[in-house]
Amino acid sequence: IGSKIYHFESIDSTNNMAKKMASEGAAEGTIIIAEEQTGGRGRLGRTWVSPKGTGIWMSIILRPNIAPTEAAKITQITAAAVASGLRKIIGEDVGIKWPNDIIIHRKKVCGILTELSAELNSVNYIVVGIGINVNMDTKDFPEEVRRIATSIKACVGRTVSRKNIVKEILHSFEELYSDFTYNKNIKKSIEICKKYSVTLGKEVKIKNKEKEVVAKAIDLTEDGQLLIKNQSGVIEKVFSGEVSVRGI
Ligand code: BTN
Predict the structure, then answer these.
(1) Fold (topology level) of 203-245
(2) Binding residue per annotation — 75?
(3) Residue to substitute in 13, 32, 48, 151 for testing ligand 1 pocket (most ligand atoms within 8 angstroms of CB)
(4) Helices 162-183, 187-195: crossing angle, 10 deg rounding
């Protein structure tokens, strides 16, 4: 991971660039980083504000030998890697809100966008995009963003080296991802996701296309899916959707 790193001043989206490079044959582990994204993308078709020089806007190209249905595991591995990496640097209470948000002081500092290209039953490539608000002043965030998002600088009260963060995250990612590819094992990642989870044990609201349910988040499965207990006591598995946790 990271044996080839492409660094751009300004591009539309590192995920777009990574997908383009992957489709042209870029190797597993290739990394795209940009100082600024002019068309940063978030989940569910949202835009991801990515100003110059203050954040980490990065994508990793992966070519795991897995079925497309397993792609969500990559998001869990990445969330575990980002949380562990950030903890090493800032030692703060860094939490994971299932499935893909990293939370400090109840607000989001990082989002993960996993995109997949598959043929029939095998993955061609996966691009995992990581966006971290590092050194921006939250007063510059739009009002509605400020309520739900924060930056590392705002949390720890000092500027933090983006380079060190990238280094620690890639280090953790390398370890957790190779455990997965060599041993077909994401136990370690799931353990980390459980340990740092801000979702488990809480009442959650899950919105997806069909419905909105209120339930208690009780566990993560070995595959990284959320287990919830609904109001009639029935236990269900959640694959995706938008989760909100009370108070976060
Ligand atoms: C989310 O929480 O909605 C996911 C946000 C992902 C943002 C990152 S920034 C680097 C990469 N390039 C993009 O266009 N998006 C991801």
Answers:
(1) SH3 type barrels. (2.30.30)
(2) no
(3) 48
(4) 130
